[in-house]
Amino acid sequence: VEPDLAANAQLTLGKEQSLYLAAVLRKNVDDEVVLFNGRDGAWRARITSDSKKSVGLELVEQIAPQSPSSDLWYGFAPLKTERLDYVIQKATEMGVSTIQPVITRYTQVARLKHERLVANAIEAAEQCEVLNVPAVPTEISLDRLLDSWTTEQGNRKLILADEGENVSSPVEAIAALRGTPVGILIGPEGGFSDQERAKLRAQPFVVPVSLGPRILRADTAAVAALAVIQAIIGD
Ligand code: SAM
């Protein structure tokens, strides 16, 4: 819903959303639901009519977003389907503001169904009532990413989840970034190539960080990294 709607406004949902409410959530007339616009507007609404084709709603009151929107950018090398869905869902649940697929040399997936990624993010936001659906841009190359971070990201720092030598322990490195907008970049199952790693680490905005002594699967690393960052930075 658009945030400028007034209380008592009447809405009729389309077929897909009506089916979701009636068949999946098993909602009935007089039940209440939360509607949100994916940015900052959320409303409590009462169901006034419920056919599977179109559900009628009356807005009751606007509500503040429960989950403060974060400014946490999340970049990752796309994984194969079900693990890709998982990563989109967990990143959304953890409140990231942007989910950016980055194609690297060892990325396993050639072509992404962008609309599926967006639909996954919206569904994850609906399921866990995260009111700000993350932006999911189309995939870009690592070089294009580095160009954009050099020219467009201001003072944002890019936390590079990486193993091997010369990586900082996350606690000190991330604590030192408190108050600075950050992003986190997770590599593919096959890791970054030596050239990619050298190119990344040469950037002044990149902070290589270890996630511990064990090699984590990329989807595990995503959740671990986001959890550590949010625990330390509180974003
Ligand atoms: N053999 C690969 C390599 O040498 O990089 C392992 C890649 S790992 C399966 C996938 C991604 O998860 C890595 O590129 C990295 O971004 C992240 N990752 C996994 N374990 C990590 C750790 N202990 N510290 C930092 N990042 C890690």
From TrEMBL:
Keyword Transferase listed: yes
Cellular compartments annotated: Cytoplasm
E.C. numbers: 2.1.1.193
InterPro entries, sorted: Alpha/beta_knot_MTases, PUA-like_sf, RsmE, RsmE_MTase_dom, RsmE_PUA-like, tRNA_m1G_MTases_N
Main location: cytoplasm
Domain Ribosomal RNA small subunit methyltransferase E PUA-like: 14-55
Reactions catalysed, as given in the entry: uridine(1498) in 16S rRNA + S-adenosyl-L-methionine = N(3)-methyluridine(1498) in 16S rRNA + S-adenosyl-L-homocysteine + H(+)
Record's keyword annotation contains Transferase: yes
GO CC annotations on file: cytoplasm
GO molecular function: rRNA (uridine-N3-)-methyltransferase activity
Biological process (GO), any one: rRNA base methylation
Keywords, comma-separated and alphabetical: Cytoplasm, Methyltransferase, rRNA processing, S-adenosyl-L-methionine, Transferase
Ribosomal RNA small subunit methyltransferase E methyltransferase domain sequence ranges: 68-230
Superkingdom of this protein's organism: Bacteria
Alphabetical list of SUPFAM superfamilies matching this protein: alpha/beta knot, PUA domain-like
Pfam families found in the cross-reference section: Methyltrans_RNA, PUA_4
Gene3D superfamilies referenced in this protein's UniProt entry, alphabetically: 3.40.1280.10, Hypothetical PUA domain-like, domain 1
Function, as annotated: Specifically methylates the N3 position of the uracil ring of uridine 1498 (m3U1498) in 16S rRNA. Acts on the fully assembled 30S ribosomal subunit.
Entry's family note: Belongs to the RNA methyltransferase RsmE family.
PANTHER family: 16S RRNA (URACIL(1498)-N(3))-METHYLTRANSFERASE, RIBOSOMAL RNA SMALL SUBUNIT METHYLTRANSFERASE E
Protein name: Ribosomal RNA small subunit methyltransferase E
Organism in which the protein naturally occurs: Devosia epidermidihirudinis
